[in-house]
Amino acid sequence: MRRSIRALTAALLALPLALAAAPSAHAADPTTMTNGFYVDPDSSAKRWVASNPGDGRASAINASIANTPTARWFGSWSGTIGTATGAYAGAADRADKLPLLVAYNVYNRDYCGGHSAGGASSPSAYASWIAQFAGGIGNRPAVVILEPDSLGDYGCMTQAQIDERERMLTGALTEFSRQAPNTWVYLDAGNPGWASPATMAQRLHEAGLRQARGFSLNVSNYFTTAENTNYGNAVNNELRARYGYTKPFVVDTSRNGNGSNGQWCNPSGRRIGTPTQQGGGAEMLLWIKVPGESDGNCGVGAGSSAGQFLPEVAYKMIYGY
Which residues are named in the active-site annotation (predicted)? Predict the structure, then answer.
């Protein structure tokens, strides 16, 4: 693992300020332990390009989507989860790159929305699964987005179910703190169109945000980076006023180039956004959702299933039509 003296020195000098602004169990900065972000060699876009080299859309999809660092999502489809996360983090480590992983297996996942319903079979099954997820990463540097939509999906849930979910998320953060000291974990906070900043700040805090690096915004959605930055800052204002701390946040920019038209499920006319990078109004701008992957059987993805790669949707998203 390459690690420059200059990067190490900068990290050590910045450490007291970082801890004061964003209390966390993690002292290490995985961005200084690696040389850029990891490109998933087996993403749905990569697989489609490899299987369709003669397709007229392949060159554009390869250049604009398949070679941009994008998160890999892990869930029940991932097999033995510790082996899966260990292999992925290990491959990135050997390449001296920072991998982006999404944990997406919480019990009663997408309980109210339904398009991505599923998850672990029980809270205890989830606790075991997420512990193995963290253990697979171990000491390797990584960024993890923890359970997209989980704090926004409260509309039809009872208070008992909400409490149960918050305990699962707090337990997950504890496992990363215990087993993955070089991982930055961002607890997902939905998007600007879902809950008020005050409501989201309360949900984040009650789900254990203090243990996380920060929170994530706009995962699989379309709101502009500016809208998300304003919302993230408003959430932090609420966190500061109510609980006495703030946290860094990251924004999913994979599909927000044209902003939102008010629809969240495979809307037409969307466009890819700023590629994965540090800074840009948030701590990082990340491609968390693969552009071209369906949100479900809806919109321009009618007849598809959530996560299915749709080359025509991907191609049009490159050009914004």
Answer: 149 (proton donor)
